[in-house]
Amino acid sequence: MKFKIFETYEEASAYSAELLAEVIRTKRDAVLGLATGSSPEGMYKEIIRRYEAGEIDFSQVKSINLDEYVGLTGDHDQSYRYFMDTHLFNHVNINKANTHVPQGVGQDLAALAKAYDELIENLGGIDVQVLGIGANGHIGFNEPEHELHLKTHVAELKPETIEANARFFESRDDVPTKAVTMGIGAILSAKKIILIASGESKAEAVKALEDDFISTHVPATLLKLHADVTVVLDKEAASLLT
Ligand code: F6R
Fold this sequence. Notes:
Layout: E1 2-6, H1 9-26, E2 31-34, H2 41-52, E3 62-65, E4 67-69, H3 80-87, E5 99-100, H4 109-122, E6 128-131, E7 153-156, H5 159-165, E8 178-181, H6 184-189, E9 192-197, H7 203-207, E10 229-234
Parallel strand pairs: 1-10, 2-3, 2-6, 3-5, 6-9, 9-10
Antiparallel strand pairs: 4-8, 7-8
The site of fructose -6-phosphate (F6R) has 15 residues, from loops.
């Protein structure tokens, strides 16, 4: 695991954008595993700037997102499909048909989850997976548990995750309590992983990435099993690292 620490979130975002751009430069039809939330927002802004400057071409790129809230359709302004459209896809020349976000609404979410794993396989795997991290160490919505799922599944969100996500909703009661998320297997099968963390609230979880231990109770520690992970931090998120 490589740690890259920057003075500011903006610098960290620019660095993450460069890592992502590099993957697309090397492989025009790269499969990007993408995340939503505050952590990658700055990176997406920088990616759009680079696209507008003619530096990145998304025409062949494919994307596959980590997760979606159960109960929200893609036109809901807090759905992760909506987030991706408004923060990235609407601003670059990606073919929307090549963008994939799990479906959070359907008769049989288990069947949709299975189909999502098949889709990842059919795409030929993920070239680079972008991740944020929960203050409790979750990645995607693989929350701290005794056992974790390898495959895409419906996850119950922990109270602290619901609390953290409430900032985007009118009230805490509006926050979905479940999400469809890629499992640890698909995340670890990505060829390259970029984990972005910003702010003091992430410092404790980031610290757990530094030592020699892995635990399902801090799911992000499983990333230590992967050979190519870059952890991109601002100085607040890095403040507890030795
Ligand atoms: C989002 C996701 C989550 C977030 C995490 C951090 O697609 O999978 O794991 O990355 O909850 O969220 P932010 O970045 O909003 O602090």
